[in-house]
Amino acid sequence: MYRNFRNVGKVVYGPGAIRQLESILDPVRAAGGGSMVFLVDDWFEGRDLPERLPIAAGDRVHFIDASHDEPKTSQVDDLRDGILAGQGLPAGVVGIGGGSVMDIAKALSLMLTNEGSSTLYQGLNLVKRPGVWHCGIPTISGTGAEVSMTAVLTGPEKKLGLKCEWTPFDQLVLDPELTGTVPTDHWFYTGMDCYIHCIEAETGRHYNAFSKAYGDEALKLCREVFLEADAGRSRANDEKLMVASLFGGLSLTYSEVGACHAVSYGLSYVLGMRHGIANCVAFRQLRDFYPRGVDEFEAMVERHGIELPEGLAAEWTDEQVRRMAEIAYGLPHMWDHAIGPDWQREITLDRLESLFRRL
Ligand code: NAD
Ligand code: ZN
Questions:
Q1: Best of 7, 40, 41 to mutate for ligand 1, by most ligand atoms within 8 A of CB?
Q2: In what side-by-side order are the strands of the sheet with 123-124?
Q3: What's the pLDDT tens digit per position in 52-71?
């Protein structure tokens, strides 16, 4: 029940905060004696953001394609090998993008100083040495990956995070101006990741005053952004959602995700379905677990005219459904949070298979 967690080191927040980056990097370059690696979501390639970055001689910029697959262990290993063979050990890693780039930046920082494949370190406290200094600059709000203790990667055997005390960022730059260009469907799916984190946190048995304080505020902000009179896309709401994402992540630090994330992991692992939309698809079928949350979610879907895919299971083979059920079943900490230590009495592979067949 006790989590002696390391929070992010420093946070700068506010519209235009990215202009602080040069003064943030200067002392890191001086202390680390070297260059920077910038990992930038490739949506920004050819746009003005890369030109606004304080790139110095010897720095490298890698554009990351986050439009299809979720981050992979092989992707992080290849990046690490290329960087060490080319520019050598950098002074720092700066990740600019959504949850995908946040996780790749956190994992890369660790893998630059730990030998072998990142598959060796998927789990809790398996990483042997601190990584290099790393900074996160989110450009889409909701996952809480900017503040979480884990860097979620999909490997050949599992989708699981590298979770240790050196995973969290040393520095966050929270600039809500960077999120204004997110397409509305992704704005909704990733924003709902935050909403669902809070609902799962508050309905499970690990919920407590620490988790509630952050979660209540994050939920209030989500309702303002997605449900109430001034809901919708606006600068003011971009500011709110960025803070909601951070607080939702902090709420989870002292609680846990639940049934929706277990089911969503099955979808992502077997189909490669992206995290935000997978959560949305799963959540609306989990009225048994989250009756009020699902009602509110459906109101938000309707309010923003979001069309979520339905009838997906008709296309799936029995083998795929079985594998999804196995992946979801293999996340005991989520079921233990959602149901309790006797969760296996309620959750069986057959029940999960029939749940997946409803999607
Ligand atoms: P994402 O990083 O996958 O990006 C979604 C899409 O939005 C991409 O196509 C990207 O190019 C685009 N995009 C991002 N910023 C943009 C901008 N400003 N303008 C235009 N387009 C932009 O999205 P996400 O939902 O933030 O992240 C999902 C990932 O986060 C998954 O891999 C999931 O496993 C991970 N995740 C991690 C944690 C954690 O605690 N580490 C928690 C939840 C989710
Ligand atoms: Zn999530």
A1: 41
A2: 123-124, 159-163, 150-154
A3: 999 999 999 999 999 888 89
Of 175, 29, 72, nearest to 38 by C-alpha is 29
Ligand 1 lined by 143 (C-beta under 6 Å)? yes
209-233: pLDDT as tens digits: 999 999 999 999 999 999 999 999 9
Give the closest residue to 284 by CA, choosing from 196, 172, 169, 185: 196
Please name the residues in contact with 305: beta carbons below 8 A apart, sequence gap of 6 or more.
none
**Ligand 1 pocket member 144 (CB < 6 A):** yes
**One-letter amino acid identity for 80?**
R
> pTM of the entire structure?
0.96
Q: Answer yes or no: is the C-beta of 114 below 6 A from any ligand 1 atom.
A: no
Q: Is 184 in the pocket of ligand 1 (CB under 6 A)?
A: no
DSSP string, 160-212: EEEESTT-S-SEEEE-GGGGTTS-HHHHHHHHHHHHHHHHHHHTSTT--HHHH
Residue-level pLDDT at 47: 97
> What's the 277 CA to ligand 1 centre distance in angstroms?
11
Give φ, ψ of 177 to 5 degrees.
-65, -25
The DSSP secondary-structure symbol of 72 reads: B
Q: Which residue has a Cα nearest atom 30 of ligand 1?
A: 99
99 CB less than 6 Å from ligand 1? Answer: yes
pLDDT digits (tens, 9 = 90+) for 12-57: 999 999 999 999 999 999 997 789 999 999 999 999 999 999 999 9
Ligand 1 center to residue 14 CA distance, Å? 20
Partners of residue 154 on adjacent β-strands: 72, 159
